[in-house]
Amino acid sequence: MRALSALRQAQCRNELKLEEIPAPSRLAPFAVALGAEVTALPGPRPLHGPAVTPLQGTEAQELATGRFILLYDPEGSPVWDGTFRIVTYIRAELDADMGNDTMLGSVAWDWLVEALENHGAPYRNAGGTATRILSESYGTLSGRQDSIDIELRASWTPASADIRSHLEAWSDMVCTYAGLPPLPDGVAALPNRRRN
User: Going residue by residue through the chain (196 aa), what tens digit of pLDDT does each one get?
Assistant: First the structure.
């Protein structure tokens, strides 16, 4: 299938760990799902990533997670307006300043639209929700810092079976949620280095 071949050819950012996960079976006759996480070793902080204290030692710190699901129905769907549908989920912990911003939901949606446009990934019928989650700890967990997470659940119909640019756009978006700056074509991120 052309779409699966396009997914395999996608060039995702090195900071993104991507692996196939079980796909939902009730949403479409055919589906493939990918899980992703962005982790970082202790060192310089990302732009707006997790507000937790740096980890000791060499243990990696999770900055963002996500799922990318490609659905295919050869008979098409009037709701999708096509035969393919991409369904995504991204979650990341944010620092307090960004997490408390009242514009966070619209910024999260703008990151999706900009990533698709920057990768030349034509789409239609996009929709989604951005949710801000405040976690406060009590009792025996009262020593934990409060945290604010952002979740984006979105779906859209790709304009063709060339799904590669959609996965590449989504991988950039997961990295953006993790607080990593966007990189121009041909530029690689420098590895995090520990400061003594």
Answer: 566 566 666 666 677 788 889 988 888 899 999 998 988 755 554 444 443 444 445 566 778 899 999 999 999 888 999 999 999 999 988 765 555 566 667 888 888 999 999 989 999 999 999 888 877 778 888 887 777 788 999 999 999 878 888 998 998 888 888 887 665 555 544 444 333 3
pTM of this structure: 0.77
Beta bridge partners of 130: 152
DSSP letter at 56? S
End-to-end CA, the chain: 51
DSSP of 70-119: EEEEEEEETTTTEEEEEEEEEEEEE-HHHHT-TTHHHHHHHHHHHHHHHT
Name the DSSP letter for residue 141: G
